[in-house]
Design brief:
alpha+beta, single chain, 9-stranded mixed sheet, D-amino Acid Aminotransferase, Chain A, domain 2, 6-stranded mixed barrel, D-amino Acid Aminotransferase, Chain A, domain 1, 2 domains
């Protein structure tokens, strides 16, 4: 499909942040966004336009029935001056899985990738180079049909916006976090939308997150509906490291969102670069092994934070269980440095992981 450009005059464009600015995470916007409409069974009118409001009717179905999905991708400027996205094809594939679960239309992966690369090309100056920074890419889709019956919409908008960002958590990788182990709140049940990156799943997590914040925890660790198995953290897949240095991730089910970072870690395991595996993990066994020292490190995997080390778990009865020495572990640090080196081009990444942003205009 031909992508139309409707760009701001140079004189009306905002300037990118200066090299020394504190970027925060997700608070900045570039000058343009990508838009595309779905109607009558097809995608049409792909375009890059000035970033700004999107008009919706009050009856737009996304506002009433929650048909929304999104993704998070990162781009990095390498030493050669070029910009590379990191595994965006996997995000496009996951987006189409989410769309299938939510009865929304899929987007051909080549079109998805061309759209985000063309937008990044327009906004090249906005890609930061500070340590732990990136150009964060937020593709999302929402239902726009003006109808009040509970059914899938027949019309949608797909949008991509860009945000030059620093680390997700203040302090970045260097600051370990506390997790609240909750048996009160649950993220998903089998047969639902837990495997989709759906807006409603995140809305449902806010109450649990506020409960965690009130107890000085950064996030909650969700368990299965019967409170027996570890599932995932509110914004990340969970992991732990055993004494032999192996990374263990809770086995993926239809109640767990498959983090591209976690999937990449498992792939690094298959390539023999680290030890990594999936495993069903009983919460009681996990806490016992943390307390005994059999588990020496723990944390979360996700695009936004990459790796968030966890230094302690807070139980709902007030018990605090420290992980290892309470400091960031050597295995987590080594993996973070390896993964970041792949992203930023300091070390050759596995084949197909990096996608160069071509010069289109």
């Amino acid at each position: 499909m031909r992508i139309d450009y409707q760009l701001l005059p140079e004189s009306e464009r905002k300037m990118p942040p200066s090299s020394g600015e504190n970027l925060g995470f997700g608070t900045r916007r570039t000058n343009h966004m990508f838009l595309m409409n779905y109607a009558d069974g097809e995608w049409r009118n792909p375009r890059i336009v000035p970033y700004g409001p999107i008009s919706l009717m009050p009856g737009a179905m996304c506002l009433h029935y929650g048909q929304t999905l999104f993704e998070g991708i990162k781009a990095f400027r390498h030493a050669d001056g070029e910009i590379y996205t990191f595994r965006p094809d996997k995000n496009a594939e996951r987006s189409n899985l989410s769309a299938k679960i939510l009865c929304m239309p899929s987007i051909p992966v080549p079109l998805y990738l061309e759209a985000l690369h063309r937008l990044i090309d327009v906004e090249r100056e906005w890609c930061p180079t500070l340590p732990e920074s990136s150009l964060y890419i937020r593709p999302f889709m929402f239902a726009t049909q003006d109808a009040l019956g509970v059914k899938p919409s027949k019309e949608y908008i797909f949008c991509i916006m860009l945000s030059p960002s620093g680390p997700y958590y203040p302090g970045g990788f260097s600051k370990a976090i506390r997790l609240l182990v909750t048996k009160t709140f649950h993220r998903a049940v089998s047969g639902g939308t837990g495997e989709a990156k759906a807006g409603g799943n995140y809305a449902a997590s806010l109450r649990a997150a506020e409960h965690a914040y009130a107890q000085n925890a950064a996030q909650v660790l969700y368990l299965s509906a019967d409170n027996s198995q570890i599932e995932e953290v509110g914004s990340m897949n969970h992991f732990h490291v055993r004494k032999d240095g192996s990374f263990v991730i809770p086995a993926f089910t239809d109640t767990i969102l498959r983090s591209i970072t976690a999937l990449s870690v498992l792939e690094l395991g298959r390539l023999g670069l680290i030890k990594a595996r999936e495993e069903s993990i009983k919460i009681d066994d996990f806490l016992k092994d943390v307390a005994s020292g059999e588990i020496i490190e723990a944390g979360g995997f996700g695009t936004a934070a990459v790796i968030s080390p966890v230094n302690e778990y807070l139980l709902e009865d007030g018990t605090v269980i420290k992980v290892g020495t309470g400091e960031i572990g050597a295995h987590s640090r080594a993996l973070y440095e390896l993964y970041s080196a792949f992203q930023t081009g300091l070390q050759p990444a596995p084949s197909g992981w990096l996608h160069k942003v071509e010069h289109y205009v």
